[in-house]
Write a structure and sequence with these properties.
SH3 type barrels, single chain, globular, mainly beta
């Protein structure tokens, strides 16, 4: 049985999220989770048109998350718990 790693800060992900006409594709390093309005978002450090940008992707807009490159640890820090409700 394959162990599924947690979504971990510092790893590289490709995230497909709801866009205007078609899914928005964001690929970069996960910086962590943050509050965005009344919800939660992923904060992704990525390159867009040759410039480094920080993209916030609302959790309720996420369609797919693909792990592109893992780091050394498969565990997140103890203080990275996110509660929904």
């Amino acid at each position: 049985m394959i162990e599924v790693p947690r979504i971990t800060k510092g790893w590289t992900y490709r995230v497909y999220s709801q866009g205007w006409d078609e899914p928005l594709v964001s690929e970069g390093v996960l910086l962590g989770y943050t509050a965005l309005g009344d919800g939660t978002a992923l904060a992704i450090d990525m390159e867009v048109e040759g410039k480094q940008v920080l993209r916030y992707i609302p959790a309720d807009a996420i369609l797919v998350v693909e792990l592109m490159a893992a780091g050394e640890s498969s565990e997140m820090a103890e203080d990275s718990t996110v509660y929904f409700g």
